Amino acid sequence: MKRYAMLDSIRGLILISMIVYHAVWDIVYIYGVDWQWYHSRFAYYWQQSICWGFIFLSGFCWSFGRKKWKRGLMVFAAGLLITVVTAVAMPENIVIFGVLTLLGTCMLLLIPLDQYLCKCNPFLGMGISLVLFVITKNINIGSLGFGSWELCTLPKDLYANWFTTYIGFPMSGFYSTDYFSVFPWMFLFVAGYYLHKVFVDKKLLEYCRHFKNNVLEWIGKHSLIIYLLHQPVIYIVLMLIFI
After folding, report:
1. For 217-228, what is each residue's pLDDT tens digit?
2. 3-state secondary structure labels for all residues of 167-214
3. Is the distance from CB of 209 to CB of 4 less than 8 angstroms?
4. 168: Cβ–Cβ under 8 A, 6 or more apart, which residues?
5. Domain regions of the chain by residue span
6. How many angstroms separate the CA atoms of 60 and 146, rounded?
7. pLDDT of residue 175
8. Is 43 a residue whose pLDDT tops 70?
């Protein structure tokens, strides 16, 4: 598979931002440091930029490579591993249906859907995907809409069980420190998928090969293993600091 230095570097930059964000989360919620800024709107935008960036970029990169089933299953399995480890090691901060579970799901679902989605004009497909993402952004909290804009309230019967939670309608009492349901986030993943097609049609991909940053590029190339290891490393470092 061809490597595109710019894409690896962007992924590396997002990963660094995520690691710093998680370190601050641990300082505030595990070690009890009273840092009010972390509860501000700016911190929320920071967290959202990481989520949106990872998911959109993953959708953009989905078309690369031929072993899509293997990649999807590997990422999904990594998500399950995080669930098991957090359930055993720190159940009060358990991760259920986290971002890796979402990304693995999107990668796998797009394999059968690709034959239909690829027939749509990429600009139109990206536009529709982004509109659907905006409209469904608030389904986790019981409504259609985005942020403070509420289109309508959804029936409570939708929020019934583990499967509906996985899809995007969390059941009563559900808790996860990292929750990314299939919807609305798959729409953002698909938007990235369509942007890739725009780049192919406009012959823009070659520009993604020329930007190089050796450190960011290396981090981006090894993003999965770094993601799996970053929290244990953060815990050890913070334990030594706060001991």
Report:
1. 999 999 999 999
2. HCCCCCCCCCCCCCCHHHHHHHHHHHHHHHHHHHHCCCHHHHHCCCCH
3. yes
4. 136, 139, 140, 181, 182, 183, 184
5. 5-242
6. 23
7. 96
8. yes
